[in-house]
Design brief:
The protein is of the alpha/beta class and 134 residues long. It has helices at residues 18-30, 41-54, 72-80, 83-86, 99-107, 121-132; strands spanning 10-14, 34-38, 60-63, 90-94, 112-115. The protein has a five-stranded parallel sheet, sandwiched between helices.
Length: 134
């Protein structure tokens, strides 16, 4: 009998703090996700452009707001400029705990807005699974 191989869901994780990114991405990887770690907005933009050319998009994007190269709001606008990308679930993972930033993020189409200090790696995995209906 042939065993079916489960395809890992692809996640792009954009976070400038390398230690924090490794901690949370590590938990996602342990849970079976295929995680592409990105350190800034410029690299994230290049990654999304490459995905568009190849027609291979992530299943979900986790992103900070404060990062070098391009902030998260500008990156969201770029992502949303591609029709197919608007359907990709997006989770903001940030230290910015105020209504103005939260409202701006939701207006740009994010699905979740998580505060880093309130979110454990397991909480992030739960949010990802919820968005991917896994």
């Amino acid at each position: 009998m042939e065993e079916k191989k489960q395809i890992s869901k692809k996640i792009v994780f954009i976070e400038s703090d390398g230690l924090l990114r490794a901690k949370y991405a590590g938990e996602l990887i342990r849970q079976g996700f295929d995680v592409k770690e990105i350190c800034d907005g410029k690299e994230a933009c290049e990654c999304m452009q490459k995905a568009q050319k190849e027609g291979i998009f992530p299943d979900l994007v986790i992103m900070a707001i404060v990062m070098s190269g391009m902030d998260g709001f500008d990156l969201l606008e770029k992502i949303n400029s591609h029709d197919v990308c608007t359907r990709i679930p997006k989770i903001v993972f940030t230290d910015l705990d105020n209504e103005k930033d939260r409202s701006a993020a939701f207006a740009l189409g994010v699905d979740d807005y998580l505060i880093k200090s309130d979110t454990s790696p397991k909480d992030l995995v739960s949010a990802v699974k919820k968005r991917l209906n896994k």
